[in-house]
Amino acid sequence: MDYQQENEQLKQRIQELEAALQAAQQQIAELTALLKQNSRNSHWPSSRDKSRKKKRTKSLRRKSDKKPGGQKGHEGHTLKMSDKPDVVTVHRPDTCQHCQQPFSEEQRAVAVDKRQVHDLPPLQVVVTEHQAETLCCRHCCQLSQGTFPPYMVAPVQYGPSIQQLAVYLKSEQYIPYDRSRQFLADLFDLRLSPGTLQNIVARAAKRLRPIVTQVTQIKTALIAGHTLHCDESGFYIGGQALVTRRRYQNADLLLSSPATGPQSHRCHGHSASFPGNGHS
Fold first, then answer.
1. CA distance linking residue 22 with residue 39, whole number of Å
2. Whole-number pLDDT of residue 250
3. For residue 114, which of 159, 67, 148, 82 has the smallest C-alpha distance?
4. What is the dihedral of CA 254, 258, 261, 264, to 10 degrees?
5. What DSSP letter does each residue of 88-118 carry, written as one string?
6. Euclidean distance between CA atoms 279 and 264, whole angstroms
7. pLDDT for the residue numbered 10
C-alpha cells in the first residue's frame, strides 16, 4: 500500500469521525436542553420540576388557646330520631331462631327495637294532568268550563317547582346554564335546553320588578333621611385591625352613598374594635 492510498483512507476516516462527533454533540445539546426544561420554559406541569420548592404560606391568624373540636357550651347538632317517621318498615322473624317453630301472623311482638334512616325520597318528576270540565246548565242550557290554575298557560309545561329550582341554581348558586341543564338531566331526567332555562330566569326577574321598584324607593328615602343606621365589620391586614362600614336597613345592604338629607346623622354600633367609639 503506497502512502497516497493510505492518506486517502485516513482522510475518509477523519471525515467519518468528524460526522460522528458532530452527531454526538447535537444529541448532547438536545439532552442538555431537555434537562433544563421546566414549567416556565416548556409545557411541563410544575409538579415535574426537579428543583421545585413547595411554597409555604404563613397564616396571619394567631394560635388559639382553645382545644380542637366542639367548645364548652356549644350546642351540638346530632342527628336525632323522629317522633313521626314518614315510612315504617317492620322486620318480623318468620320462624323461631332456636327451635325453628314458625310464628303466626296474629302473634304480637313482645319488644320492638327501632332504628331510623334519614334519606331523600326517589328523585323523579311527577306528571299531573289538569282537566277542566265543561258542564251544561239545566236552567239556561249554557256551557260553563272549569278554570285552570293561573300558571298553566300551555297544554304542556314545566311546573312551578322545576322553575323555582332552575332560578335557584342560576341566581343563588351561580351555576351556568349548561351545568344546570346537566344537573336536571342527571337527577330528574329532565331535558331542558339552555334557552328554556334563560326564559324561566327572565320570567322570574320580570315578576320581581315591582319589588325592585319598592327597594329603589326605600333607598331614595333613606339617602334623604335625617338619620341612617350603620354597621361595621372588623378584619386584619398585615396584623393591623381595620374596620369597614356598611349601611343597613333591615339587615339588607341598600345604600352605596351616604345620607344627604338636611342635618343628616349616621349612627353605628358600639363595637370595641371601632376607633372613636360613639356617634359619627
1. 30
2. 40
3. 82
4. 120
5. ------SB-TTT-PBPPTTPPPS--------
6. 12
7. 87
